[in-house]
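Sample intake sheet
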Amino acid sequence: MQLRSLIAGLVAGCGLALLAACASYGPGDLRVGDAEAAVVQSMGPPAARYPLPGGALRLAYARGPFGKHTWMVDLGPDGRVTRWRQVLTEAQFAELQLGTPADEVLLTLGPPARVRPRGLRPGELWSYRYETYECRWFQVVLDEEHKVAEAGYGVDPMCEVGKDDWTN
C-alpha cells in the first residue's frame, strides 16, 4: 500500500512539474505593464539581455537548442513590459539584410541553436530552429567582420535519417 501511495505521489509530482514547465515556455499570462520580476517569475531567467535605446531592455527567452521558439520581451526604461513576441518566423528571417552586424542579429533573433566555424573561410555559421512543416532551419553566415554575408534555409540535421548526433 505504501508503494502504491509513493508511486501515485511521484506521478502527481511529475505531472505538476510538467505543467509548470509548459506554463513557463512562453509568456503565458504576462501583460503590458508587468514588472521584470513578473516576467522572470513566469518564464525564468532570460537566455540573454540586450540593451535598447533610451534605457529600455530586451529579454531573450530562447527555447533551444531543440526548441523552435525565441520569445523577446521588451521592457521600457521603467522596467515594465511594453511588448513581447516570438521572433523565429520566416517573416522575421526575411527582414534580415546582408551586412547586418552580429549583435543586431542577436537583438532580432536571439541566441542561435548552434554556432559553428564557417569552414575554410573566417567567420561563423549560426543556425536557428523554428516552427515549420518542413524539416529545415534558418542559417546565418557571418563573415570575418562578424556581419551577415549570407542567410538562407538548410536541412535540419536532426531530421536526417540515420543521424543520431545532431551536432555533426
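Comment: Residues 87-168 form a domain with the Beta-lactamase Inhibitory Protein; Chain:B, domain 1 fold (CATH 3.30.1450.10). Residues 5-23 have pLDDT under 50 and may be disordered.
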